[in-house]
Design goal:
The chain is mostly helical. Among the domains are: 113 residues, no CATH class; 64 residues; 55 residues, no CATH class. The protein has 29 helices and 5 strands. It has a 3-stranded antiparallel sheet with strand order 3-4-5, with no helix packed on it. The radius of gyration is 34 Å and the shape is elongated. Bound molecules: zinc ion (ZN) (3 copies). One zinc ion (ZN) binds next to loops. One zinc ion binds next to helix 6.
């Protein structure tokens, strides 16, 4: 066996055949078949997928880029086909790639597809703009693997039409563009190609990208399970849930796309009119070797809109457990995790009508909703459709922020709720304040307008300030006797200003604020520590800590914060930052992904795909997260 002393360095996403061809150019062999004998001991053309890879690798000096796994992952389209194959099929295919199988039956070449659905193009395709760019960056152009799908017609990056033929003479390009020219010597670069801004194709690109990223995590059984979940939810199952309403399904599937779209995907209408064709993909028992990737992607698109949604957002399935096992999605449109599976707990209670009521609270925004379930029927939720509610704690937070002078819009953004909700709380709050005033016999006209209230505040403050300036030696009590109405109103509605500006009350002076501050600070630190140790699903912020204190303590914190610097500090220091929370929450997410989605190795990208809130993180923090993930993956 002769060793090979030089071999081209693989370029990003370079098709394996392209690497071989570049070697062929260096080798000065006359024919490709000569080179193939030299590399693989086989007198044939370069195959779409490598076979007998071990023979080649043994001849090469060891390097990371040229290991079997790296070649398969980075230089073939296999990562996007393997998820559609059963484990035993995958194993025989990998065997064939490494050692070349004896039986034709399990040949990896069959993955290119059949006449009913082609996955890999027979002709090699190029993007003219990629050729130009590659030439500038690498000094050579090459075959991009992601251009080689039979059902993809534009470049992922440039959205222009891919080409297979020379514009000038019409000859098939084959490998020649690697040299920048067609067989007759026409320059391939700098050609204008029409820009196809095609939404349908763009979505396909997204699906394939998702497949590449999650290739090792998505399994055939998950596809099949999801298919049945969606068939059920979309009403394609007969009563009993075991049989499909075939004719209805076919009719709606055909209506979902245009004839041109089916054609572009290489799917014949007559083929999908036969139930067998669909059954081959959806059926629980089928285990085909020839994967119909375009048809599978179309079916997924039809049922779920996109592959990402199909895989990551499970839909409720009829089962004997009311509402199933979860996780369930958040339905609060203002939540950063809207329609993501953020809910892992469901509070089930009897609804008094022989059914079960389930309450679901989002772990991110704390918004909740209710669904009803009845044995043997699909989930009913008509009465509660899109009816998201918030807890009392959320209302308190709104009131508090209103007191700090935040606008309705900012409060809504901060607390992940709608402006309408904030307005409603503001109104109710202001009504109850008015009500209290009426009780104490004040004569202020009841009004719910906040702007009028602030007008009043200004007037009253002015009255009191003027009086104090004229009589600087007067005590609180004396001010009270003179301006009873203003005094009472400001004390109730403008407490912070009131305490900061009026002379100290006698009892207040006697009160030992420092002692109280020290005690409260300790309590805050202890509670925060316990709270974080209990590992809640939400960030431990200022409000969660305050919720553990007594009403009186919270009241003092809110009104006399300027006398409680240590406690204030403790509140700020003990609140978790977003990063601290994200790091603490990581094990829970890893557990969820492993348990619910059968992930084995979890990367930052997986986490980001699963939880939107992790997407905007800094590069430094990304490193921290990856390190933690490495520990958790072990
Ligand atoms: Zn391109
Ligand atoms: Zn030409
Ligand atoms: Zn939410």
């Amino acid at each position: 066996m002769e060793n090979i002393m030089f071999f081209p360095t693989p370029l990003p996403n370079e098709d394996f055949r392209s690497i071989l061809y570049r070697y062929h150019m260096y080798s000065l062999n006359r024919e490709i078949t000569d080179t193939n004998i030299e590399l693989f001991g086989s007198k044939s053309k370069f195959t779409v997928f490598p076979r007998s890879l071990e023979i080649l690798l043994q001849k090469l000096p060891f390097c990371k880029e040229l290991q079997a796994q790296t070649i398969i992952e980075k230089h073939t389209l296999l990562p996007t086909f393997l998820p559609f194959l059963s484990e035993s099929r995958t194993n025989s295919i990998l065997k064939d790639i490494l050692h070349r199988a004896e039986l034709e039956e399990i040949c990896v070449g069959k993955l290119v597809g059949s006449k009913y659905g082609k996955s890999v193009s027979e002709e090699i395709k190029y993007c003219p703009q990629c050729i130009e760019e590659d030439w500038e960056i690498y000094g050579v152009s090459y075959i991009h693997r992601e251009h080689q799908y039979a059902f993809i017609h534009t470049c992922f990056k440039h959205s222009v039409d891919l080409i297979t033929q020379c514009d000038d003479c019409g000859t098939e390009l084959m490998y020649t563009p690697i040299l920048g020219r067609c067989k007759s010597g026409h320059n391939i670069m700098y050609r204008k190609s029409s820009n196809m801004n095609d939404q349908f194709e763009k979505e396909l690109h997204m699906d394939l990208k998702f497949l590449f990223i999650h290739s090792t995590e998505i399994k055939l059984w998950l596809f099949k399970q999801r298919f049945w979940e969606y068939l059920n939810v979309k009403g394609f199952l007969k009563i009993g849930g075991k049989q499909i309403r075939q004719q209805v399904f076919i009719k709606e599937f055909l209506n979902a796309f245009t004839h041109e779209q089916f054609l572009r995907m290489g799917i014949e209408i007559n083929y999908i009119k036969k139930w067998n064709s669909i059954e081959r993909i959806l059926g629980y028992k089928t285990d085909p070797l020839v994967v119909n990737v375009p048809l599978s992607l179309l079916l997924i698109k039809f049922l779920a809109g996109s592959l990402e949604r199909f895989i990551l957002k499970p839909v409720p399935f009829v089962s004997e457990i009311p509402f199933g096992n979860g996780p369930w999605v958040c339905k609060n449109k203002n939540c950063p995790e809207y329609m993501q599976s953020t809910i892992h707990k469901c509070a089930r209670t009897k609804n008094g009508l022989g059914g079960i009521k389930g309450q679901f609270i989002c772990e991110c925004c704390q918004a909740g909703y209710v669904m009803e379930w009845k044995k043997g029927s699909v989930i009913k939720r008509s009465r509660y459709r899109n009816n998201v509610f918030f807890s009392k704690a959320k209302e308190d937070q709104v009131v508090h922020l209103l007191g700090e002078g935040e606008t309705l819009g900012r409060i809504a953004t901060k607390l992940f709720c709608s402006v309408d909700f904030v307005r409603k709380v503001a109104k109710e709050h202001s009504m109850s304040m008015q009500f209290k005033l009426l009780i104490v016999g004040n004569e202020i006209a009841a009004t719910s307008e906040i702007s009028e209230e602030s007008q009043q505040k200004k007037q009253y403050r002015q009255t009191i300030v003027n009086f104090m300036q004229r009589n600087p030696e007067f005590s609180r009590n004396q001010i009270l006797t003179k301006y009873r109405k203003e005094y009472a109103w400001l004390r109730r509605n403008d407490a912070i200003w009131f305490e900061e500006n009026l002379p100290l009350s006698k009892s207040f002076v006697r009160f030992d604020w420092n002692e109280f501050d020290v005690t409260l600070e300790k309590k805050i630190r202890d509670s925060a520590k316990k709270l974080i140790e209990s590992n809640p699903n939400t960030r431990v912020g200022k409000y969660s800590i305050m919720a553990t204190l007594s009403k009186k303590e919270v009241g003092r914190l809110k009104t006399y914060i300027q006398h409680l610097p240590k406690s204030n500090n403790a509140l700020i220091e003990c609140s978790e930052t977003k990063e601290q929370y994200q790091l603490r929450h990581l094990p829970a997410l890893v557990w969820q992904l492993k348990t619910y989605y059968n992930y084995k190795q979890i990367t930052v990208e997986t986490i980001q795909a699963y939880r939107r809130s992790y997407r905007g993180i800094t590069d430094d923090f990304k490193i921290v997260i990856s390190e933690r993930l490495r520990e958790l993956n072990e």
